[in-house]
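ARCHIVE CARD
CATEGORY: sequence design from structure
SOURCE FIELD: tokenized fold
FIELD CONTENT:
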């Protein structure tokens, strides 16, 4: 892979857009090698984008509050909200009114957890299974009437049983057709506004906010990363990614630290 991108002899900033859950953030947190590598990445003058299905508050909890360096940008809610490195919103896209109530009716009685998220927080609308997951590390009881009159940026569903996932996913996609996007992330379904994806968010960042840049790398392990892999010069998957995700990437690595080390070595 040719990593250097030059203009008038000056190396432009290489961009790394990385997923969080299952890529950099795990049930036991961020691994020390990844933490060190990310610090080295930023110290070398490169650009770091966090691209995640998480809410702004969840990113703050698993990244900023554990002492990680500020990224340059965050694509949150699978692209519904784009922020700067300090989590101040730069671009937002909200759900259409009425969708949450329709999803509540659709999944009534199903063994899952239904969340709804405003610009900051995740709220539990219905919980019929244990709701512990690092993907939604902090949540609050929902006031459904208030949420009906609040801009929502994500409606995540946690479905740990594959049989239930197989039943709910097609029904949810049918309900949301033309009204919202449904992105699969491990045992979550993330319902986000129409046209929203990690790829669309990354493309908007590259075009409107980042400006001149070098090569773009993406790193991710799940289906909701496919759209951003399509935007990259160098899409990279984790070795544990599903076969479909690996097939869309030019390389696989065991960790973010491994990828960053490879790129920094070639930048010298």
């Amino acid at each position: 892979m040719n990593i250097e991108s030059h203009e008038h002899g000056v190396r432009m900033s290489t961009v790394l857009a990385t997923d969080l859950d299952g890529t950099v953030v795990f049930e036991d947190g961020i691994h020390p090698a990844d933490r060190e590598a990310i610090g080295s990445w930023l110290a070398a003058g490169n650009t770091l984008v966090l691209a995640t299905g998480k809410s702004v508050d969840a990113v703050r909890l698993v990244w900023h509050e554990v002492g990680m360096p500020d990224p340059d940008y965050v694509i949150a809610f699978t692209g519904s909200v784009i922020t700067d490195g300090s989590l101040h919103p730069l671009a937002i896209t909200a759900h259409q009114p009425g969708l949450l109530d329709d999803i509540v009716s659709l999944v009534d009685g199903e063994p899952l957890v239904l969340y709804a998220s405003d610009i900051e927080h995740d709220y539990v609308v219905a919980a019929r299974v244990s709701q512990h997951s690092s993907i939604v590390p902090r949540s609050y009881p929902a006031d459904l009437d208030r949420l009906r009159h609040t801009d929502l940026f994500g409606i995540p569903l946690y479905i740990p049983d594959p049989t239930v996932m197989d039943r709910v996913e097609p029904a949810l996609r049918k309900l949301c057709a033309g009204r919202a996007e449904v992105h699969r992330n491990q045992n979550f379904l993330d319902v986000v506004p129409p046209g929203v994806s990690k790829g669309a968010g990354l493309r908007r960042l590259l075009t409107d906010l980042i400006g001149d840049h070098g090569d773009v790398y993406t790193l991710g392990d799940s289906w909701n990363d496919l759209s951003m892999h399509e935007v990259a010069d160098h899409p990279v998957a984790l070795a544990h990614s599903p076969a479909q995700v690996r097939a869309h990437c030019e390389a696989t690595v065991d960790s973010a630290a491994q990828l960053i080390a490879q790129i920094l070595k070639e930048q010298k």
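CARD ANNOTATION: The first helix runs from residue 32 to 43. The two ends are 14 Å apart (CA to CA).
SHELF: design records, drawer C
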